[in-house]
Amino acid sequence: MALFTPVGHARDLAAATLRLAAEAIAGGDTRLAAAILDQAQPESPDGAAATVSGCIGVALGLLDQWLSGHGAGAPAGLAKLTRLPAGHGTGKRAATDILTLAGKGRAFSAIDALIARQGGQHVLYGSALALAAALQAWSRHAGTPVPDLARSTIR
Question: What global pTM score does this model have?
């Protein structure tokens, strides 16, 4: 579980990667989002790059908080407002599972099962897609642009 719960600089790197990917997805640029997510490394011994596990863990933790109603500042009922954008082949099935689990506050605790069922890359892409979908719903509800919301909430 330590791999999926980065702290300090490692968390900052994972959060920055997720912010950029979510903004690209929300803006309709899936190629850019994929390029950003593909920069995450399986391991980063020197701590110079975001890790796949760190990105997945941060995204699922945030989604659990926001969609289960325990996230400070997240609108009530965000899970019901969140819909995946059309398209997005890689990770879409994983994103659907993630949104369902996160609405119950159980996405993070289901990491092992998600990866076993979907594969690591699909869970990485799916977690970013689900995060972008939640940000888009929150953005519509609050009237705040996605980039501004992403910068203030993905940490």
Answer: 0.94
